[in-house]
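BUG: 3D viewer hangs when loading the predicted structure for this chain

Environment: internal workstation, default settings.
Expected: structure renders.
Actual: progress bar stalls at 90%.

Input used:
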Amino acid sequence: MALTKTGLLGGSFDPVHLAHIALADAACHNAGLDNVELIPVADPWQRAPLAASPGQRLDMLRLAIQGHPALSVNPLEITRGGKTYTLDTLNELPDTAEYYWILGADQLANFCSWRGWHDIAGRINLLVAQRPGAGLAPPEPLAEHLAACGRELFELPFPSMPISASDIRRRLAAGESVHGLLDPAVARYIEEHGLYRATK
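Structure tokens produced before the viewer hung:
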């Protein structure tokens, strides 16, 4: 029996927005995946501290995937806690699926800075979506390593969506509209919990 093709979409999701969900859906519909697990980080080592708590980010993700039966939330990085490294996450996944790590072209350019990137690239398929201002060509060390491992880079057709969590946080702090950027249920959650407001 063929293994399930499972996409893995990691991120801060601070907050989860419509482009995140559209990317996960596109991976299912355009890349032939059976499902996608969204994996929120606990403590990302390459960026500033997060604004929303782990529990709040999990809540928002669960609200955002309602109505998307192929999507699920995997809390293993938050459950594990501490600094988040992709290699540790791969080590915890069951070997019951063929995994595809979904990343944007901007992350691809930075891939060789990831802890244990040789091991990651040798063990999992890389599914890359186009992002504004970033090409799809892998860094030369990664291209050479993929060739040596007999792996290829999979391209994910995905229309550019200029939505970013940092812009959403800025808008919310400034009291500006985020209409069309967030799932309405996520927007209500943010309002009800007073998230991302400017600190006085």
